[in-house]
Amino acid sequence: MSEQDSAIGFYSGDGRFGLELPHGVVQDILRICQAAGGIETGGILLGQYNSEHTRATVHNVTGPPPDSQHFFARFLRGVAGLQELLDRLWNKKEKRFYLGEWHHHPLPIPAPSPDDIVQMQEIAKSDRYACREPILLILSGSPTMDWQLTATVCTRNGEVCPLISSRRS
Ligand SMILES: [Zn+2]
User: Fold this and answer.
1) Ligand 1 centroid vs 104 CA: distance in angstroms?
2) Residue spans per domain, the chain
3) How far is the CA of 51 from the centre of ligand 1 (A)?
4) What gap in Å lies between CA 29 and CA 148, rounded to an integer?
5) What is the pLDDT along the chain (169 residues), one digit of tens a residue?
6) What is the CATH number of domain 6-165?
């Protein structure tokens, strides 16, 4: 198996947070970004935590809900259908959880913007998502050529923790 086929891992230096992105999930993200044709797009990360709650594994991602607003350098994720989706996942035998958000930065700017951080901190505090430590995953650059993934955890008490990627480019 080549590096290209394997999962991408992210971790914090102190071992408190980890994230695993299977190859298929990365491919789905690249496909959704390509379909958006160069404007920002995004969606939600869904999956599970390990029993110590130190590592999240993304099982699937959604694309943008229909009421999302796309701009060249800004994406406001809509909420249409979101609650129904979260309820459905919760009720499934193999529970899946809301883990956080992902979006595309068409320009190669891998860091979250100040707006991105504010949005994540609102999510961390919101009861709707029941997620105290949501992850923000950003795909930056061209989805067909030279892209980079970065992950940041934003906690309910206002901490912003960038994760280190295992992917070597
Ligand atoms: Zn952003």
Assistant:
1) 7
2) 6-165
3) 30
4) 12
5) 444 558 999 999 999 999 999 999 999 999 999 999 888 999 999 999 999 999 999 999 999 999 999 888 889 999 999 889 888 887 877 788 999 999 999 999 999 999 999 999 999 999 888 899 999 999 999 999 999 999 999 999 999 999 999 875 5
6) 3.40.140.10
